[in-house]
Amino acid sequence: MPSTSGTVNKDLQAERDKCTFNNEEFTLWWVGGETKLKEKRFREDFFLNDPELQEKVPLHFLSHKELYEESVRKATVAFRKVRKMNEMGQDGVDNYSALLGGLLGTGILKQGNPLTVHYVMFLPAILGHGTPEQQAEWFGRAWNCEIIGTYAQTELGHGTFLRGLETTATYDERTKEFVLHSPTLTAYKWWPGGLAQTANYCVVMAQLYSKGQCHGIQPFIVQLRDEESHVPMKGITIGDIGNKLGMNGVNNGFLGFDHVRIPRKNMLMKNAKLLEDGTFVKPPSQALTYGTMMFVRVVICRDMAAYLSKAVTIAVRYSAVRRQSHINPDQPEVQVIDHLTQQYKLFPALAKSIIFKLTSDNLWDMYNQVTSELDKGDLERLPELHAIACCLKAITTADAAAGVELCRMACGGHGYMTCSNFYGTYGMVTAACTYEGENTVLLLQTARYLMKAWQQAQRGQELVPTVQYLARFLSSKNRRMDWDDSIGGIVRALQTVAAGKLRLAAEHIEQRQKRGATLEEATNQTSIELARTADAHCRAFLVQSGCEMIEKGCATASPELAKVLRTIYHLYAYDEALKSLGDLLRFTTISESDINRLQAKLEDALTELRPNAVGIVDSFDLPDDVLGSPLGAYDGNVYERLYEEAKKSPLNQEPVNQSFHMYLKPFMKSSL
């Protein structure tokens, strides 16, 4: 990737010179081939070099209102350019994915895109929940942005617990209409992106009532604002929820209904249906209602890998430029990246960004396969997809948030600067720990699935791929697995940990029931164990999936690249094992000497990666405008860029600030 200033920092260049593999080969593998890479680079050049999309004033110097207005301006410019690409024959869903994702998208709109929910949730909701007739009516207009939509599910008083939602949609048989109503303040919709000032339509999730009965949560299309004036429709109360830790360009809003009437055809009826006489027809599976959320969770996993790769790229490059302290007193200060503790902060996070991306690709394939099976009426693998998507969303978001923060701290005081872009990246990542399912709740949903799988395994029934290890665990005569520090042995050990935790949780639920607790009470009393079981299951899946995907890449890679990829994966596996030592001691025969050997293997992997760390992050092929950080620019001119950023402060645009004459000088001249 070319330097932005012409002169590359000599230490950073020296790192590139010592790289043992071909960067372009890694990049081709990383993005999915030559065609994908060519399209990616064309797209980045097309968007990032457009003056209309350049940042004129750093966003952190704008007011909340100014930031939103700038975000809307940029979003409309960007999506007009997507249309232009379509006219040029450069069409495809990848253009939308790039603009809405954690790389190019946040390079252009650093505080989030107010149209994201329109594309990521409103459109998929119409496809996933709408009949062919409803899709014909709504999808074309929405795709062309003749209308802008959002997806309103979370309320002021309820989030992840969907059955607790209070918004009602009551069917009026006389007029063949639904009456949407917010009976309490806590029933107000709260958080939907684009809701406050951007969208004029919405898919609303509400409790359906007909013939005096509640039929649960169903989706409805509701017009929020007039299509010409944008004034809120009668009975609609709508607004902005205020400033947040991050994502302040997303335009999150609140929404209340005062007996708002919509026609019967506005209930999306691909799955559940309501007949004209008010008769409710159940869907073949209640889980079909949650298809949109599963799609979004798959997308989130991919975005977490992207955000973490940005943070790691910034921190690794900065650590190669920054010199701090001596290792040998008689020699000059060393690069920070030469300190083993710094390598241990950064390299496992680097490995995670790669494993998360590969596993999200794996999950994406699984999602598409299950979706095609659903269209044929085959629901068999839906629970498995739901379970693995839930725990992967929880683990990747939590680990990415911790990884971004670790990268920030690894950059010392300069990492604390807003312009370093750790703050903005952390705001994006940590939000994902909560939206589309709070992480603990999602882990418990996975645990509920694992409990059912455990019962199936005990009965000797056939198990789906992600839980087949339970059968091996049950067939083993030894409660503790013989420790084996090969990669396959670590995978089996982590699976044994998950199975052992699951066995104990099942036993404890049974014991609590025998002492008089109901199943629900016993499950709640065992919920800490259950969440940890789901965590262990997910981490075992990540290590196994990462191994399979890395080996798949190595099959076609050069020996030099294959060696680096395996080192990355080995580091990830060793790190996960060492962080699970307490559990490995409980469920395997690992000994102190085994632990020492495992620690030595991890340190060897750090040493092996050290010469290639900059080469690896360079191979992510992230332009400077996507990184958005003076600490991580390709040329490594950290201090010059930090100084230029400091000069942009509004306080530096005049030699004396008015507060001196208004407040400080009178205070200093007054007698105390």
Automatic annotation (TrEMBL):
Keywords (A to Z) from UniProt: FAD, Fatty acid metabolism, Flavoprotein, Lipid metabolism, Oxidoreductase, Peroxisome
Pathway: Lipid metabolism; peroxisomal fatty acid beta-oxidation
Organism superkingdom: Eukaryota
Listed GO CC annotations: peroxisome
Obligatory cofactor(s): FAD
Subcellular location: Peroxisome
Transmembrane stretches, start-end: none
PANTHER family xrefs: ELECTRON TRANSPORT OXIDOREDUCTASE (PTHR10909), PEROXISOMAL ACYL-COENZYME A OXIDASE 1 (PTHR10909:SF250)
Name this polypeptide is given: Acyl-coenzyme A oxidase
UniProt source species: Anopheles merus
